[in-house]
# Entry
Amino acid sequence: KALKIGLLPADGIGREVIPAAQRVLESLSGPKFEFVTLDAGFEHFQKTGTALPQETIDTLKNECNGALFGAVSSPSHKVAGYSSPIVALRKHLDLYANVRPVVSVKSASTPHQKQLDMLIIRENTECLYIKSERQEVDPKTGMKVAWADRRISEYASKRIGTMAFNMALTRDKLRQQKPESERFWKHKPRVTIVHKSNVLSVTDGLFRETVRAVKEQNAEKYANVDMEEQLVDSMVYRMFREPEAFDVAVAPNLYGDIISDGAAALVGSLGVVPSANVGDNFVMGEPVHGSAPDIAGKNIANPVAAIRSAALLLEHLGYTTEALQVYGAVDKVLSEATYLTPDLGGKSTTSEVTEAILKNL
Ligand code: NAI
Ligand code: MG
# Structure
């Protein structure tokens, strides 16, 4: 039976990189796919008054095995009636983890690049992203004050922590299948808990304690996984100084968002970093980048992040062989450095890079 995949290109370069990822999936010899393109995004909101039609949610929930999301152009100011469809989708489909592998590829054109192979696991449902904000006038000063609530729950922290330890084991298993010389990470699997509980001892304190307890309560299962912690500010510092020191990093929503864009800079571009929004019953691949209005419509967006997101989707649907095939083709094109988009210092178009990847499959 064909796998049904919902495609939500949404806005900006989403419309250029999602079709590229679709072509890669279509060219695989293993699984057969049926694609359904669904509406979402800020432009859809401007046309119809809704950024996420009920039909899109229903089709994903009732008919699809997985989905690929492009990017949405959320404005930085408040627009009446609008709220981000990606944040809403994560909630509707209970996609509680955002899994972001950041991997460097050796290439003659990027000798300065640090070597890293880390997996950032970002909690996807709470923290400041519950968007409980309000504004009032401070009676003392007569000036405006704005507030935001931050929610950290034991429930969400436990399930994200459990995922982090499980992923550390899965990555270790995959690594063991590679020859020693090709293994980048030579240590025991490691989970780094990212927090700021020296200041936010109640909220981040709960996150930290709960993730720590996951290991302590499953001592035997995770005996081989090292656990360490890092305050989020020094996490940024260490990531830039010695990114090779990280295997799996697990973080509350906002910190996870910020450190993953930072990690993207270490591997050359936001245009190569994929993610998967993962729940117990559904997976949605999504490049880490946004809609990039500065380059949209020019056929120069890097399709690699979207293509790797499609591979991540395959991986989470159980098609590991096909996923590895896609990663391999992408790595080959990046390391040969003949076809690179401008963000990586090349002159190729989105279409040319996609063709090159298709040829290497
Ligand atoms: P952005 O990720 O869209 O762009 C940041 C910079 O990276 C830009 O210079 C852009 O040209 C470059 N870039 C991003 N992806 C690229 C690719 N595939 N190839 C080559 N270059 C690439 O972030 P920005 O500019 O902060 O936000 C633009 C819009 O995207 C905003 O409306 C924001 O709300 C939205 N956004 C949406 C996200 C999502 O849909 N999940 C995530 C992040 C931002
Ligand atoms: Mg982001």
Observations:
- The pocket of NAI (ligand 1) is lined by residues 13, 17, 71-74, 86, 269-271, 289-295, 301-302, 305, 341, 343 (CB under 6 Å).
- The longest strand covers residues 3-10.
